[in-house]
Design goal:
By secondary structure, the protein is of the alpha+beta class. The protein is about 25% helix and about 30% strand. It contains six helices and twelve strands. The strands form two sheets. The chain has a seven-stranded mixed β-sheet with strand order 1-2-3-4-5-6-7, covered by helices on one side. Strand 5 and strand 6 form a beta hairpin.
């Protein structure tokens, strides 16, 4: 459908084209048809379709300008546009603007993650940080980061992700007032890991696992 509606806009995704094929000064779609595939296969309702629109500048730098996550098994949808804020809809209801939390202390913070696979040499540091948090839950996948955008969770982190796993999540979190970066602190979804937070806890989290 996107190809028919926007034939000049290229598509990047796990089953589609590569980011390296995108020319400068052009827009492109970033798509993950089913994020949370293992959940989908096992009947766990935490899976969604992820779509983002990005722009590659003339110097080759990329930015996400819009994003949408649709989770039909959760009866929810989230979306954001650059400079327009972030919103959610529940069961086809009206759009509600969302905002990150105001929690400033790790001891008061809720932390969400997928699992402990892939943390490598950071694993012990991550486990130690979990013990400092107020609450830790392995919600995982896209929902962890969107709960950060809604202010229900304060930090979500995953050590290995692809662009199509993160692109819409990043703009939704940031338009809700939070920060989305990789584990090195690079802002946006263009690394190989993803950390979202309410902003107030971001530096402390990254420092604790470095």
């Amino acid at each position: 459908t996107l190809s028919l509606q926007c034939p000049s806009v290229l598509i990047v995704g796990e089953e589609f084209g590569s980011p390296e094929s995108i020319p400068a000064k052009s827009r492109y779609w970033i798509i993950d048809p089913i994020d949370g595939t293992k959940n989908f296969l096992r009947g766990v309702p935490i899976w969604a379709t992820l779509i983002a629109l990005a722009y590659r500048d003339e110097d080759g730098s990329d930015s996400v300008i819009a994003g949408m996550v649709s989770a039909p098994a959760l009866f929810r949808r989230w979306y954001a546009g650059l400079g327009f804020g972030a919103f959610t809809e529940v069961n086809g209801g009206p759009a509600t603007q969302i905002h990150v939390s105001a929690v400033k202390s790790l001891g008061d913070a809720s932390l969400s993650f997928s699992d402990l696979i892939g943390w490598g040499e950071r694993k012990n540091l991550y486990l130690a940080l979990m013990e400092r948090a107020w609450r830790v839950r392995g919600i995982g996948d896209f929902w962890s980061h969107l709960l950060v955008a809604e202010g229900a969770v304060d930090i979500a982190a995953e050590p290995k992700l692809a662009l199509w796993d993160m692109a819409p999540l990043s703009i939704i979190v940031m338009e809700a007032g939070g920060i989305f970066s990789d584990l090195s602190g690079r802002i946006g979804p263009f690394g190989t890991s993803g950390v979202s937070s309410n902003g107030a806890l971001h530096s402390e989290f990254l420092g604790a696992i470095s």
